[in-house]
Write a structure and sequence with these properties.
single chain, about 575 residues, alpha/beta, Gyrase A, domain 2, Isoleucyl-tRNA Synthetase, Domain 1, 4-stranded antiparallel β-sheet, 4-stranded parallel β-sheet, 20 helices, 13 strands, RNA-binding, nucleotide-binding, ATP-binding, DALR_anticod-bd
Length: about 575
RNA sequence: GCCCUCGUAGCUCAGGGGAUAGAGCAACCGCCUCCUAAGCGGUAGGUCGCAGGUUCGAAUCCUGCCGAGGGCGCCA
């Protein structure tokens, strides 16, 4: 196996057209060759239409000239013709398609390059709150962030995952105080019955503590003292706090394992971490004259954003009573990630309602001189998960939906469908497949629609397993694997002189376009681009599957088709992995 | 008041300067002696929110309007 990049045919054709443009009109050298996949040929170039005016000619004439130049070129085109108002339709020889397939099969990375090499990317995602259940609100950031981490990493970025845990704040004062006053309470994971989690217990205890805080003035006072003790580093208080953090992380870990998310405890860099940096951040901003006093608080007035009163909107750097909120920690994160982590790409995967907040954080970071031209900072916003009523997803009683419950529900429904479709499965195989299909269905449903749009969480639809769902992709993969198993998983061998059937041709062209889909994910930060590609690929495979028998074909066609199966299976498996979805061998 | 996002088939969504606007679901009609029918083929369904503008060409870019959602000082 090699790991040299295999250039996609689209790029090779584009290079040819670029050469043709430079040859025919040297003054237009460097212009976009406007090469796309085409319904009328393998590829088409629309360059003649785009450039005719600059070339002082008519589109059909320019197209004709480009066609002639392409015919002389030693590039990949075998058949070039002008069509319509000036489209240049380009067809590539079958042999070249086979060569691409063979080269990708021989390559450990399917011929993908590492265009993001040299980028150091921080991705901030998931960010659950300590001592609180993970709920629907954490689903999208966790799934989307993780997929982006995988894709960007594969493309050569050095990815630094940051799980910005909500592990600091006044709420811990009352929780710790309450636990201290009630040593009989059990909440550690090893004290609880199986299936119960420490965060679930802590979440309940926090509510109780909160009620006590509101009812009992003396308890409230002791809780406030406890906040002070926590913030000033009192050893006993800190020890208890660390215990709560670590127990909570165990519960998060269960969810991450189940979701197949890459986050590890090493990626946890919560709010508390920034504590020791806040005074430096504030000093720097104050000395630079960016942060100023206002109504007793320290704020940064935006030069871009105004509030309801028409005055500049502020970031709250230090509250009137001296405390710090999320504005301050977020200013600290961006400084830390640029100065200490030395990242040149910073992604914050949070819901779209925080857009204005990040706009102001980035503005402040630019004014402070932290965020400079070579560094990209981006809020990666996503829409709300809605319930069947079109309102933010809640339980019937109006509470938040626990993430674990939601996953249980999806998996148990998946199990019903899987066992109906395949009643012969052994119990443990059924469990495993139901888990993979159910979790995959949830993740795919989340990743496969436009990130910024709200979407309705509809388990029935996700788990119906028809159409553009995760299971369709998994199913396509198992059908291919079944063929390959029956063939004995042979070493690929391709005879490139064999003529391609239309379905084979469409499949081969699609397989060749994988890298384009991945680059689009990198530039748009939309996993949907990868989902769409994989769905198209699975459909192209299914068409091929219907039209081109593999095992019963005569050699050398059989081997060639097996090679297409192998590359499709590997590409599907690989793409699903970048989405964080497993590709079972059987279903 | 200002700002952001969204408006495409009955429903859920792709397409974000190029040829007849595409899928899935739901509906209807077909297809398992054949590599997994969790599949495939077909029929039907659209003034791409509205109105201007830019362009050889606009669902796509610009402006305005309408509608939905969200945000804008001490919650993240």
């Amino acid at each position: 196996m090699t790991n040299h990049e295999v250039l996609p045919l689209l790029g090779q054709v584009a290079d040819s057209v670029s050469r043709a443009i430079a040859h025919v009109h040297p003054e237009l050298a460097g212009a976009d060759p406007v090469v796309r996949r085409s319904e009328h040929a393998d590829f088409q170039s629309n360059a003649a239409l785009a450039l005719a005016k600059r070339a002082r000619t008519k589109p059909p004439e320019l197209a004709q000239a480009l066609t002639a130049a392409l015919a002389d070129d030693r590039g990949p085109a075998t058949h070039v013709e002008v069509s319509g108002p000036g489209f240049v339709n380009i067809t590539v020889p079958d042999q070249l398609l086979w060569n691409q397939v063979a080269a990708r099969l021989a390559n450990s990375r399917l011929g993908m390059g590492t265009p993001n090499e040299g980028q150091r990317t921080v991705i901030d995602y998931s960010a659950p709150n300590i001592a609180k259940e993970m709920h629907v609100g954490h689903l999208r950031t966790t799934i989307i962030g993780d997929s982006l981490a995988r894709v960007l990493g594969f493309l050569g970025s050095e990815v630094i995952r940051q799980n910005h845990l909500g592990d600091w704040g006044t709420q811990f004062g009352m929780l710790i105080q309450y636990l201290d006053e009630h040593p009989e309470l059990t909440w550690h994971h090893d004290e609880l019955e199986r299936g119960a989690s420490a965060v679930s217990a802590l979440d309940e205890l926090y509510k109780t503590a909160r009620a006590a805080f509101d009812d009992d003035l003396e308890f409230a006072d002791r809780s406030r003292d406890r906040v002070v003790a926590l913030q000033s580093g009192d050893p006993d208080t800190i020890a208890r706090w660390k215990e709560i953090v670590s127990e909570s992380e165990k519960a998060f870990r269960d969810i991450y394992d189940r979701l197949g998310v890459l986050l590890t405890p090493e990626d946890s860099v919560g709010e508390s971490f920034y504590n020791h940096l806040l005074t430096d951040v504030i000093t720097e901003l104050t000395e630079a004259g960016i942060a100023v006093e206002s109504e007793g608080a320290l704020v940064i007035f935006s030069e871009e954003v105004t509030g309801p009163d028409g005055n500049p909107a502020p970031l709250m750097v230090r509250k009137r009573e001296g405390g710090y909120g999320y504005d301050t920690t977020d200013l600290a994160t961006i400084r830390y990630r640029i100065h200490d982590l030395k990242a040149n790409r910073l992604l914050y995967v949070t819901d779209s309602r925080q857009a204005l907040h990040f706009q102001m954080i980035f503005e402040a970071a630019r004014r402070a001189g932290w965020l400079t031209d070579g560094i990209e900072a981006a809020h990666v916003p996503y829409g709300t998960v809605l319930g069947p009523d079109g309102r933010p997803f809640k339980t019937r009683s109006g509470g938040t939906v626990r993430l674990m419950d939601l996953l249980d529900d999806a998996v148990s429904r998946a199990r019903a469908v899987v066992s109906e479709k395949n009643p012969d499965l052994a119990a443990d195989a059924l469990d495993q497949i139901a888990e993979q299909a159910g979790i995959g269905a949830v993740k795919y449903a989340d990743l496969s629609s436009s990130r910024v749009k709200d979407y309705v969480f509809d388990v029935e639809r996700m788990v119906s397993f028809n159409g553009n769902t995760g299971v369709y992709l998994q199913y396509a993969h198992t059908r291919i694997r079944s063929i390959l198993r029956k063939a004995g998983d042979p070493e690929a061998s391709i005879d490139p002189t064999i003529e391609l059937q239309p379905a084979e041709r469409a499949l081969a062209l699609e397989l060749d376009a994988y890298s384009t889909a991945l680059s689009e994910v990198s530039s748009t930060l939309e996993p949907l681009k990868l989902c769409g590609y994989l769905y198209d690929l699975a459909r192209d495979f299914t068409t091929f599957y219907e039209a081109c028998p593999v095992l019963s074909a005569d050699e050398p066609v059989r081997s060639n088709r097996l090679a297409l199966c192998q590359l499709t299976a590997r590409t599907l498996q690989h793409g699903l992995d970048l989405l964080g979805i497993s590709a079972p061998e059987r279903m």
